[in-house]
Amino acid sequence: MTVQRLDPGPRMSEAVCAGGLAFFAGQVPDDLTADITVQTRQVLDNVDAVAARLGGSKADIASVQVWLADMADFQGMNAVWDAWVDKANPPARATGGVALARPGMRVEMIVVMALPGRG
Fold it and tell me: Which of 4, 45, 54, 101 gets the most CB atoms within 10 Å of its CB?
């Protein structure tokens, strides 16, 4: 099996492709002072950008893990998610509350996407 890495760095890659799947690094917001709706939009914009770089789209996403620093943000995150998600091709999804890596970070998403034409 061939493994390809998107933007490999000393600690991690932006995504790793293997076996017809792309495994995204955790997608995080840019503005750590923003509320959950803005941060969720930023994360989903990042997801869209990585998917596009790999030749895919949100319709190709198989699974998403959503991590929230505070489960009280669940409704706010879902409001943005519901407006974004491909209604004809929703991924499997799980959401959990965790301590995130940086202060102010309210949401992080881990994505697994099927690579179009490779599986």
Answer: 54
